[in-house]
Specification:
The protein is α/β, with parallel strands linked by helices. The protein has two domains: about 1-80, no CATH class; about 110-380, no CATH class. Helices cover about 35% and strands about 20% of the residues. The protein has 13 helices and 14 strands. The protein has helices at about 1-25, 50, 55-65, 70-85, 115-120, 125-145, 160, 180-190, 200-205, 220, 225-240, 345-355, 370-380, and strands spanning about 30-35, 40, 90, 95-100, 105-110, 150-155, 195, 255-260, 265-275, 280, 300-305, 310-315, 335-340, 360-365. Strands 7-6-14-12-13-11-10 form a seven-stranded mixed beta sheet, sandwiched between helices. A three-stranded antiparallel beta sheet has the order 3-4-5, with no helix packed on it. It has a two-stranded antiparallel ribbon with strand order 1-2. Helix 6 crosses helix 8 (about 180-190) and helix 6 packs across helix 13. The longest helix is centred in the first third of the chain and has 22 residues, at about 1-25. The radius of gyration is 27 Å and the shape is elongated.
Length: about 375
């Protein structure tokens, strides 16, 4: 008898769990969901059931899914549970995206190739390190002959700055981290002005978010955000000022920082200078008779004040093409030339054409194997 009562109670509870949400369905739909920053699906007209049955079924399913009772509460509960139990599940597509603690996302690249770096395993081979150092020495000697300073800047991945949110099931390697090892090796085997931005971002993160918590595409996840880029710019300017002291770096007082929502991800920072200096992007025909692996890999900005120095960036996406570092540099140089570093074989051609007053190499941490191979292949035995 007792078992029968328990079974009956279980069936009643189960049926209530199915029926009660149905009693609170939003009949019409089409309302705005602030949690998801979108308009929920509206109920399709009943006439569609006969006139367009396939469309009716699809639209009915979308309406019901979006408007079932207590849906908002369930989204809130899910997010709270996800924060507590997340141990590194992932979304597997072209790229691997790790989902760590408190909902932080990390870009792990194809097949998770960046995970071993976090675990402290060698990220560059001895041959890549020595080849890159040798190639950079030859480039510096080439530029020294022309009295052109060279600065090399290594940017950092999110997990190097925010290891505390990385999935707990993946253990971080011992100190020093791979970026520090690579930086110190090159510093010890060259006399180049070379640095990474790890320390400045670790300091900045105490007051500002320098990487976004999460995003919806690998291209977003793999970069610092606009605040991180601003502090990286300031760190770069310390090195530029050693050669060009007359150029004054923008300070935090020169920018406005606002926050916006992107999809379901809140508080994404926007950084804008309070007063922009006028400059323009030149037409791509400036590279018509220049060796370039792809037309999109060369960009030139020209300031209204042509008396300012010219700077050449051999860079990747951490410099950007009008965002990140390249939002600020064109405002302080007469001409800013941005060329992807995979065109390093033609560096001497760019030097002769643009006659820069200073040259900066920039590479993302995750791209250092490719950067090292390119330097070694093009200048290693130059």
């Amino acid at each position: 008898m007792r078992i029968k009562i328990l079974n009956t109670a279980f069936v009643c509870i189960f049926m209530m769990a199915l029926i009660v949400p149905l009693a609170f369905v939003n009949v019409y739909g089409g309302i705005v969901s602030e949690q998801e920053n979108r308009v929920l699906a509206a109920r399709p007209p009943m006439s569609y059931a006969f006139q367009h049955p396939r469309d009716f079924i699809k639209q009915f399913d979308a309406w019901f899914t979006d408007n079932v009772g207590f849906r908002g509460h369930m989204i809130t509960w899910y997010r709270q549970i996800d924060k507590m139990v997340s141990e590194g599940h992932y979304e597997d597509g072209q790229y691997l995206i790790l989902i760590g603690q408190e909902g932080h996302h990390y870009f792990a690249d194809v097949n998770g190739s960046l995970i071993p770096k976090f675990q402290g395993k060698s990220f560059l081979s001895d041959g890549q390190l020595s080849g890159m150092s040798g190639g950079l020495n030859r480039i510096k000697a080439y530029l020294d002959e022309r009295n052109i300073p060279l600065i090399v800047m290594f940017c950092t991945d999110k997990e190097t700055i925010y290891p505390e949110y990385y999935p707990r099931t993946i253990k971080r390697g011992p100190e020093p981290v791979q970026l520090t090892i690579i930086t110190e090796y090159v510093q010890n085997h060259t006399d180049i002005d070379l640095f990474n931005i790890m320390e400045c971002l670790v300091v900045a993160k105490e007051s500002y978010p320098v990487f976004d918590k999460a995003g919806d595409a690998a291209g977003i996840l793999s970069h610092y955000n606009e605040i991180g880029a601003f502090f990286a710019y300031q760190e770069l300017m310390k090195h530029i000022n050693a050669y060009l002291p007359e150029i004054k770096a923008f300070t935090i007082d020169d920018v406005n920082i606002t926050y916006r929502d992107r999809g379901i991800y809140p508080n994404i920072p926007d950084v804008h200078l309070k007063q922009d200096i006028e400059y323009s992007r030149l037409e791509t025909d400036v590279f018509d008779n220049v060796n370039l692996n792809h037309p999109s890999q060369g960009i030139v900005f020209e300031n209204n004040d042509s008396s300012l120095p010219t700077i050449l960036f051999m860079r990747d996406s951490y410099t950007g093409t009008g965002n990140y570092l390249s939002r600020y540099i064109p405002q302080q140089f007469g001409k800013t030339v941005l060329i992807h570093w995979n065109n390093m074989a033609y560096l001497d051609e760019y030097i002769e054409l643009f006659k820069p007053d200073i040259v900066v190499f920039e590479s993302a941490e995750r791209a250092l194997p490719g950067f090292a191979e390119t330097i070694r292949a093009t200048w290693g035995s130059y």
